[in-house]
Model the fold of this input.
Amino acid sequence: MSKGYGCRANLISTGKYKIIYAYSCYNVNSDNWKEHYSELDGEICILMSAYDSLTYHNTEHWNPSEKLSHTIRKDVSFCDLLRDNQITIKNASGAWQLDENGTDIMAIRLLGRIEEQCKKGNIPEKVSWFC
Done:
């Protein structure tokens, strides 16, 4: 029976052109899981243009009788942006499961958590996932 596995990321920097997270992943079934948990040696780099494409965009439309405002959301996902190299991942040392492109599956799970917040217009300082 599995004891579980997880990952966590901390925001390192936000700048004019990119957002950088340091992340770690760990498998509690492994003898050295505590080392992998504490080592934030992986990196997730998100170009600011990728972040902007995920956030909600407010647009204002004029009606002759009143001003109407509504929100438009572009249908873009982090998976699309990862494929287009607008997001890059340097695998953490604790990575044990990779996708067909050699990307750490746990980093992709973290991207899902980050994406949830980005769609609300937030850049989260910390994200985690555990199963």
Notes: Residues 35 and 90 are 18 Å apart (CA to CA). The chain is about 25% helix and 35% strand. The first helix runs from residue 33 to 38.
